[in-house]
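User: Hey, quick favor. My workstation is busy. Could you predict this chain's structure for me?
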Amino acid sequence: MATARELMHPGVTCVRSDDTAANAARMMAEMDVGVLPICGVEDDKIKGMVTDRDLVVSVMAAGKDPEQYTVDRLPQGHLILAQAGDEADGILAKMREHQVHRVPVIDEGRLVGIIALADVARKLPEDRVGEVVESISQP
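Assistant: No problem, here it is.
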């Protein structure tokens, strides 16, 4: 079975925790992504994730000024991570259990990549992909 390192796409760019929601949105647009890891200013370690939906719901729809609202103020749930050597079965179980579409991958405490549902779809058998999609799509 594949490992997280084999499933992930490497070269992840973080938005700094003191960056604004507007800058996070610009970064997402430039990179054509819907999520960015939030990394600390001092230690460069992953602190959370910001999605395009977070920006719309928690900033824009809530009437916040995206040029002033920093991403570290966004509500953060429990951060679900994978270690680079974790087996795919365990990662898929985490995705199902926590109903997440993306899992950041760390190696020795450093962010090295992200596994998105699209990565799973490209690299694992169709029946496994369908099972994950169905389970993370439950209300």
